[in-house]
Amino acid sequence: MENALHNHIENIVVSKEAFFRLQQEKEKQSAEIDQLKADNLYLRHELEKLKRMIFGSKSERFVGMQDPSQLALGFELASQPRPEPSVETVSYERKKPVEKPVVVHSRQPLPAHLPRKEEVIEPLEDISGARKIGEEITEVLEYTPGQLYVRRIVRPKYVLLREEKSIIIGDLPSLPISRGNAGASLIAHIIISKFVDHLPFYRQTQIFNRLGTHIAESSMNDWFAGGCELMKPLYQKLVALMVKNSYLMADETPIPVLDKDKPGTTHRGYHWVYYSPIEKLVCFDYRKGRGREGPQEFLKDFRGTLQTDGYSAYGSFEREGEIRLLSCMAHARRKFDESRNNDLPRANYVLSKMQELYAIERECRDMGLGFEARKLERQKKSLTILEELETWLKSNLQEVLPKSAIGQAITYTLGLWWRLKRYVEDGRYEIDNNLIENSIRPVALGRKNYLFAGSHEAAQRAAMIYSFLGSCKLNEVNPTEWLNDVLTRLPDHKANRLDELLPHKWKNLQNNYS
Fold it and tell me: What residues of the chain score a pLDDT lower than 50?
């Protein structure tokens, strides 16, 4: 009897242990299933992003509901069935509008500053004894392909009769490239053709060949390098001026670079871009990598507010206490736009709130408000929206899967929230970084045309040119006229007055000389 009872107890103990093992196994499998579901959501989101990047529209335009406040009442409204719409017939009379006669617009006159080549056509009939009573003039716009010409500088040499063996000759004007045979206008043309019109040097060589002049691609590279060497002090002046600003935007974009240490492949370098919204200047700085060393070196003398995306390399600046970080609302908004397929109600709520914030910014621009007035308007209207949005983000963080698209969007936004809402503290600050992203677009276009930089030195020279041409665009300066004039002036320009040649001050210099 005792043995039977002992065996029975042992069986019960074994059964309990087996039960607990099964329970633990079930919990483990349940956790694995939850993890697989989360991974599946994450991978589906990444696939959707990739498809959108390759095939989809790049627009992030969001059309909110006519009554955005409905979303704040609760998401249960979205799950209720919609009532079937009733059908009714409506008939009415209206007056047919009077059709306006078709107005034939007169042709716009051709620009008066263009040179005219006059061509006189006399009648075929005999006009002897006739009296001229007028003339009909027809102007047709024609085109002559660009032409090269040779600037022939002749300097007569004289010997002074009163002094034996004394020869005098006029000084040779300073040229952009010492002892070179390329003038400022030609160097300016090949630089503008490459970095504004995105024509690689080999295509420009083909164009010159069609004009009857062969210019080797290697010569163009040498001229480009010589022009950049001449402008290097001006670029250094631009860098020094940038870091004196109290408010900058920063971003980075990749550029493939040929590297002699990696034959057959390209090195992934980066253009770090810094933009001053107040001065309207942009500066590109090439670095071999995306590490924090690049911005740390460039901004070592900068003291102020730096607006960036959420890239972690910028995080160390805030801890150093000399730079205040400001984040970009557009990057946060993009996260929620990408998560609409994952959780439409939540994504739409955040997008609607951000749409209200941007509407306030647009209203400030339309009214032409100054910095102080814009700050007051934000304090009055934007702060309330930001507080509502922050409360919503915190309450919904625990209700979504961390790896889901909406979970990542909420986590990203909350992680930067204290930087995102700082823009309301100063009217000079912008709500997002879109202004600097506009400056980066020429680099993306260039990548599609000339594919890569030939070396790290060439990538840095490209950064210099993008800086100057981007600043010209921001200040509405004709880049061809600016570059031609600057390359002509630089050889003899005083070093302590280099800032006069930067695009934002160059207009004033031109007015003084005219």
Answer: 66-80
